């Protein structure tokens, strides 16, 4: 429910839109959960696809290098353990890391900046794949762990920042409405003076 300040009829404080969730974070209704689940599933699908591509690349890398099958099995087992540890470490580290609570404007700036960085890194990161081939599966597992921590949180940092911004604006509007309200007379002399 949007707040209306006392003494200012019809004037409402509107919640700010945040990236991916719009203003659905305010009521947390069906639209909110649909957006949040859809975005989380889309991100997970991208990460799992990346993991599949990396796993195929990784297997092909060791085969191309000419590592015998028995040695490859040992390498895959070590890689599987490293992936599991990376997944858990990424999740725990992201969960425990201090989170900077952004205002809605900061959330939008970060969202746009991240999109530009992703486009730039997609073009320039192809050669690093060859250099990182031995640790790619663990890197993708780390990415899945760092994705899971904020995605599975009850509220995102952007939601918390938007809620704090909304409550601040409601307080400011209530203070303005209180300041605009006329003060009641303190005694009869002031009342009589006020009538003249």
Q: What topology does this entry show?
A:
Elements: H1 30-65, H2 69-96, H3 104-124, H4 126-132, H5 136-151, H6 157-180, H7 188-195
How would you describe what is shown here?
By secondary structure, the chain is mainly alpha-helical. It has 7 helices and no strands. Helix 1 runs antiparallel to helix 5 and helix 2 runs parallel beside helix 5. The chain is elongated. The N terminus is likely disordered.
Keywords:
mainly alpha; disordered N terminus; single chain; about 200 residues
Short description:
The chain has 196 residues and is an all-alpha fold. The chain has seven helices and no strands. Helices cover 71% and strands 0% of the residues.
* Integer average pLDDT: 77
Number of strands: 0
The topology string of helices and strands comes to: HHHHHHH
How many helices?
A: 7
Reported for the largest beta sheet, the result is:
none
Helix content: over 70%
Q: Please report which band the strand proportion falls in: under 5%, 5-15%, 15-25%, 25-35%, 35-45% or over 45%.
A: under 5%
How would you sum up the global shape? elongated
* Low-confidence parts: 1-10
Radius of gyration computed on alpha carbons: 27 Å
Q: What gap, in angstroms, lies between the N and C termini?
A: 43 Å
- Structural class determined from secondary elements: mainly alpha
């Amino acid at each position: 429910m949007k707040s209306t300040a006392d003494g200012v009829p019809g004037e409402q404080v509107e919640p700010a839109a945040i990236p991916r969730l719009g203003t659905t974070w305010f009521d947390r209704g069906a639209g909110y959960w649909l957006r949040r689940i859809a975005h989380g599933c889309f991100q997970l699908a991208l990460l799992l696809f990346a993991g599949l591509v990396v796993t195929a690349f990784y297997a092909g890398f060791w085969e191309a290098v000419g590592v015998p099958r028995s040695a490859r099995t040992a390498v895959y087992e070590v890689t599987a353990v490293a992936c599991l540890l990376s997944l858990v470490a990424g999740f725990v580290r992201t969960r425990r890391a201090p989170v900077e609570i952004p205002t809605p404007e900061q959330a939008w700036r970060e969202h746009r900046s991240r999109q530009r960085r992703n486009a730039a890194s997609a073009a320039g990161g192809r050669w690093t794949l060859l250099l990182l081939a031995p640790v790619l599966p663990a890197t993708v597992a780390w990415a899945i762990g760092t994705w899971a921590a904020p995605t599975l949180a009850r509220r995102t940092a952007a939601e918390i920042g938007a809620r704090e911004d909304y409550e601040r604006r409601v307080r400011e509007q209530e203070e303005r409405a209180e300041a605009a309200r006329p003060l009641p007379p303190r005694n009869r002399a002031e009342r009589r003076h006020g009538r003249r």
